[in-house]
Amino acid sequence: MNRDHIEIAEALRKMITNGIKPKHSTRSQKFDNVIHVTDLYDFCARKYVLAQRHKVALNVDRKFPPAMNVTFRLGQKMETMVLESLQSCLFGDFSTCPTCGAIRYNPPLLQYPIGDFIISGHVDAVVSYGNKLFILEIKSMDKDQFNNLTEPSLKYMWQLMSYLYLKKKKRIKDISDVGFLVYLSKGYNTKPVKVFPIEMDTPFLRHIRGVVRELKTLSKRKLPKRICTTDLYPLAKDCPVKDFCFRRKKK
């Protein structure tokens, strides 16, 4: 094989790898008082208090290695495919790209203020079926995981339940109390889509009510307890306030 061709191939590989980056999401808001629904599953009140005390930005775009970027972009493309397939029944606002003229779907943003904070969630889609509106949450996974999937992940169930909770607190009666979790296979499958109906359950309601109680008094309390036992705990690994959280007092 020609040496020049090998060098060109390697240069192209690097350009493609480094050029694949997740599109910035409207979910990324750089305000430390905004709590995304994705943070409610393993909610840490201490993180938000420390972020405010030390002026640390929490909701910033994270940087991932190239392999993760490819995975995220595939997931984003698959989500777009689902939205295109449901175009006739999508509910929400639509806008036109000023550059290419493409029609863009803007699903509803659900927000609920609690004390000094705002719980915020951008749903993937709201669809009209029959005479009702339903919230959809769209996920993708590799073929083997998909084949073994018999019930949805608890974390994703709670994410969808959080949207249902927010719409209820906002008294949006047009949207059903039932949502649907949509899974897509990233590999070949004769049945590449699985859909699960989701409703708020007792464990979730107990958890979210506890979070709400904590948020209402957070600014008036002392520093909340840690939920991570050590700085090697999985949740602490990428936490932006980890160093402040585990700082040792000088004797």
Describe this structure in words.
The chain is α/β, with parallel strands linked by helices. The protein is built from 8 helices and 9 strands. A 4-stranded mixed β-sheet has the order 6-7-8-9. Strand 4 and strand 5 (117-122) form a beta hairpin. The longest helix has 20 residues, at 66-85. It starts with a helix and ends in a 6-residue tail after the last helix.
What is the fold named in CATH at topology level? Lambda Exonuclease, Chain A
The helical percent reads 25-40%
What percent of residues are in strands? 15-25%
Q: What summary fits the major beta sheet?
A: 4 strands, mixed
- Mean of the pLDDT scores? 85
Number of domains: 1
What is the rounded distance between the termini?
66 Å
**Using only CA atoms, what is the Rg?**
21 Å
Order of helix and strand elements from N to C terminus? HEHHEEEEEEHHEEHHH
Number of distinct beta strands: 9
CATH architecture: Alpha-Beta Complex
CATH class: Alpha Beta
Structural class: alpha/beta
Shape: globular
- Number of helical runs? 8
Strand order of the largest sheet: 6-7-8-9
Q: How are the SSEs placed, and which strands pair?
A:
Layout: H1 3-19, E1 34-36, H2 45-54, H3 66-85, E2 93-96, E3 103-106, E4 109-114, E5 117-122, E6 125-129, E7 132-141, H4 143-148, H5 154-169, E8 178-185, E9 193-199, H6 202-217, H7 234-237, H8 242-245
Parallel strand pairs: 1-5, 7-8
Antiparallel strand pairs: 2-3, 4-5, 6-7, 8-9
